[in-house]
Write a structure and sequence with these properties.
The complex is a heterodimer. Chain A has 14 helices and twelve strands. Chain A is of the alpha/beta class. Chain B is of the alpha/beta class. Classes of the chains: A alpha/beta, B alpha/beta.
């Protein structure tokens, strides 16, 4: 009976170190010759062990920049991290030295990119490139690194891996190149895999293969995954939770099922309504009017207000805070409950 | 729905007929004494008809030949063999003044709104350029007014006629490309991946614009895309291509609801559905391997190397795209049947 006192079950995650990875109130701007672009304006999200978080947004929403800040691969300048924290296992990465960050990069958090052809070096065989990490970081001998490279290529289901070790990136198809990049990312057994638009450049049948592979690997290797994408279909297939970004902010955050069932932010609602559906054929697509904002001149109040069908005076004047809607769902909209109820109807 | 563009032009009659179109790109070896050692069979015997006022969607994965097909129809490539007629006139035999007349009737919208507009020309010059080549389409004095009308038609501000492409967003640039294609009042517009470079929220705006223009002007579209959801939304009929051939063609409903070719079925089943509730109940056909090289396609049925139904006969006998017992629309499979 005193058991629970000795081992208290964590009802809520502990404030420090509760999450595997946590981004807190991150602000990033880009200083260009034309002015300052506010690319990230207070992004917060977290990732727990073993889960898949989808970060959804259109071009310029800041989804990739946030990931690059986590990895520590932002080009500074022009980028400047103004404020915020990136906690990995409770410790802030942004205050660590470059050498300490190098220990995290690849080993703890690894990343794969959209365009595998430009991410791989065209002048070296893929086996050598996969082994490079192992030789440099794990101090493996050349033959050990070679052996491990074959294992990794097998792991990502590249047929006849041992024979293809000496092939160059251009000798692989798009899908196989993406597998090579995944193998490189997995070389150091990371706990977090960030996949930035991993299937955007691929055909649908290959996309399905790669998403299957990522889901299997995440489960088998017990990794956590951040999936960055603009594709609502891909998110629906694999993610546990979803964070929707607009103009450098998370506008809505929810578990995937409840978000698709009833979005609580007008932007998410507009996105879901504007995609052509193969299973439902409508006459006309509803659209989100206007254009995404210029990040050098973000609208006052809620950045979405010039495009929003729910807009009121308050939206122009006041920046909306995250409204909690229960189940840990949040929506940065003054009328979140209304939008949610409208969508649920 | 709407009246035909002009009384003599009947909706539903054939505008464009393509017969057994073939384009092989030679593979050569040697520098001084070049000899042909093979051919990339980009388009390998394609036939279809396009009717007035309809949209024919062409889908397929990269390398299936859909963009080469578009370039052939625009006469940007010379076909190896085959025939195409636009309103009864032979597209590939025409030359000189006749070719120019034919080209007026067929225009193209390209994929990338960033590279398909000359950055040094104003929007007015870009949209008005077709009138330089076809002065009869708009007399000199009326050109500016005509360009402004076109800007208005595609939903841009006519006062922006003197701006440059970089002053517009991606979606707006695609509208400029559409305005340019409309300038000569064509019958047919070939759209090669017109929305795939655009963000989701902008994509819907451009699709709606294309649909609205079709209704108002009685246009016929060949709509090439890899996004099957977009194609279903916009198309009346759909052709599915694989390694240079049309493997199945039919109405939107026949292809999406009653596909009988295994490739079409696999392609459709792989499209991600934006509904997490269907995650576990979806019945996805997982194709193994990659598309073979079009330089060396498999014998017989091109799809047989990835097909779970493949038998001896598939390696020897080329299946014709003919109506099958399972459903009366053309399907190039010996074992065509509806998906269980």
């Amino acid at each position: 009976m005193s058991q629970s006192a000795v081992h208290p079950t964590p009802a809520s995650p502990t404030p420090e170190g509760g999450h595997l990875l946590e981004v807190r109130d991150l602000h990033v701007e880009f200083r260009t010759s034309e002015g300052v672009a506010k690319v990230i304006n207070g992004v917060s999200y977290h990732l727990d062990a073993g889960e898949t978080l989808a970060v959804l947004g259109e071009s310029g929403s800041g989804k990739s920049v946030t990931a690059q800040a986590i990895m520590g691969i932002l080009d500074t300048p022009p980028a400047v991290i103004r404020s915020g924290q990136i906690l990995y296992q409770g410790r802030d990465l942004l205050t660590r030295s470059e050498e300490q960050r190098r220990q995290v990069r690849g080993k703890e958090i690894a990343m794969i990119f959209q365009d595998a052809l430009s991410a791989l070096n065209p002048t070296f065989p893929v086996g050598w490139q996969i082994g490079e990490t192992l030789r440099q970081r794990a101090g493996m001998s050349r033959s050990d690194a070679r052996r491990r490279a074959v294992e990794l290529m097998d792991l990502v289901k590249i047929p006849a891996a041992a024979d293809r070790l000496g092939d160059y990136p251009h000798q692989f198809s798009g899908g196989m190149r993406q597998r090579v990049m995944i193998a490189m990312a997995l070389a150091m057994n990371p706990k977090v895999l960030i996949a930035d638009e991993p299937t955007t450049a691929l055909d649908v049948t290959v996309q399905a293969q790669i998403m299957d592979l990522l889901a299997d690997l995440r489960r088998d290797l017990d990794m956590a995954m951040i999936l960055i994408t603009h594709d609502l279909g891909v998110v629906a297939g694999v993610a546990d939770r979803i964070a929707v970004m607009y103009a450098g902010r998370i506008v809505e955050h929810a578990d995937v099922r409840s978000l698709y069932k009833a979005p609580a932010h007008p932007y998410t609602k507009g996105l879901l309504e504007s995609i052509p559906r193969m299973d439902v054929r409508g006459q006309q697509l509803s659209t989100i009017r206007g254009l995404p904002p210029n990040l050098m001149r973000i609208p006052s109040g809620c950045p979405f207000h010039p495009r929003c069908p729910y807009v009121q005076q308050v939206c122009v004047d006041v920046v909306p805070h995250d409204l909690v809607l229960g189940d840990g769902r949040t929506s940065a909209c003054h009328f979140a409950q209304e939008v949610h109820d409208d969508s649920a109807r | 729905m709407t009246a035909p563009a002009s009384p003599t032009k009947v909706r539903g009659e054939t505008v464009l007929a393509v017969e057994d179109l073939v384009k092989h790109f030679p593979i050569t070896r040697g520098v001084v004494f070049q000899k042909q050692v093979g051919a990339v069979k980009a388009v390998d015997g394609v036939s279809f008809e396009l009717r007035r006022g309809e949209t024919l969607g062409i889908v397929g994965e990269s390398g299936c030949g859909k963009s080469t097909l578009a370039r052939l129809l625009m006469r940007l490539e010379t076909p190896t063999s085959g025939r195409a007629t636009l309103e009864g006139r032979d597209l590939f035999k025409a030359s000189g003044a006749e070719l120019r007349r034919l080209r007026r009737n067929m225009q193209m919208v390209l994929q990338d709104p960033y590279t398909s507009l000359n950055p040094r020309m104003t929007v007015g010059d870009i949209i008005g350029e077709p009138f330089e080549i076809h002065p009869e389409a708009a007399p000199k004095g009326s050109r500016q007014r005509r360009v402004q009308e076109l800007l208005d038609v595609v939903g841009l501000n006519p006062e922006h006629i003197n701006r440059y492409p970089h002053q517009f967003s991606g979606g707006q640039r695609q509208r400029i490309g559409i305005a340019r294609a409309l300038a000569l009042r064509p019958e047919v517009i070939v759209c090669d991946e017109p929305v795939s470079a655009l963000d989701v929220s902008i994509q819907a705006q451009v699709i709606n614009l294309l649909e609205q223009l079709q209704d108002e002007l009685g246009l016929s579209y060949i709509f090439i895309a890899h996004d099957l959801s977009v194609v279903r939304h916009i198309s009346d009929r759909v052709a599915v291509m694989y390694l240079g051939r049309i493997v199945e063609i039919g109405t939107e409903d026949e292809i999406y609801e009653r596909a009988t070719h295994p490739y079409t079925q696999a392609l459709l089943s792989a499209v991600p559905v934006p509904d997490p509730e269907q995650r576990d109940t979806r019945n996805m056909i997982r194709l193994v391997g990659d598309v073979p090289s079009p330089a060396n396609p498999p014998s017989g049925c091109h799809f047989r190397t990835r097909c779970w139904k493949a038998q001896e006969v598939c390696a020897h006998e080329d299946p014709a795209a003919v109506p099958r017992a399972a459903d009366p629309h053309p399907s190039a499979c010996h074992f065509a049947e509806l998906r269980a």
